[in-house]
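User: Fold this; C-alpha cells only.

Assistant: Input:
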Amino acid sequence: MSRKTPIASIARECSAQRAKWSEVTNAITLESAVPYVTNDDLPPSVRNHLPSHGQDIYREAFNHAWQEYADDSRLEEIAHRVAWAAVKKVYVKAGSQWVPR
C-alpha cells in the first residue's frame, strides 16, 4: 500500500527550503558585493590606528568606491585612496593619534 503525501505538506517543505536558500544567497551576495562587511574585516593598518568612527568612515567609503570603480584595473588602489581621503575630511593625525578636526 503506497502512502500519499499531502500537497500542503510538500508545499510547506518547499517554502522552508526556499527561505533557507534565500538566506544563504543573500549572505553570499552581501559578502561578495563589498570586501569589508564589518570593521573587524578591515586591514590591521586601519583597524589598529583609526578610532571606531574613523573605521566606519573608511569601510563605507572603501566599499562604495569598490562598487563604483569595479571595472577599473586599479580598483583596490582607488578604493583605498578614496577611503583615506574620506577619513581625512573628518580626522587629522596628531602625532600617532587620529583626532576629529
